[in-house]
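Journal club side-thread
Mid-discussion, someone asked how the predicted structure for our own chain would compare to the paper's figures. Pasting it here so we can look after the session.
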Amino acid sequence: MNIKRAIHTARHNVCVQVRLEKAVPTPKGVGNPKLKFWKIVLEALKRDDPKEMADEYVNGYGNLKGECPSCHCTMMHPAKYCKFCGQRLKWREDDE
């Protein structure tokens, strides 16, 4: 199963759990544990899908830097993941 299919499956399960939660009301303050689980899975899968850097540039020292597309923190090449939010990164330079 590739990452796109896994995200689709998790998104579907979130929708199913939301419909179940609306059909059977839960006591105030008590959430559906399955809904919480699928939301966490969906968020983790989205972060594991590589996103292209929002802005890449070479600083004055000749180092390639870029901005994380999720949290907009500055990262230095060759970071594969953002150290702040965990987003998987895709550098344009790596495509060449």
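Post-session note: The mean pLDDT is 86.
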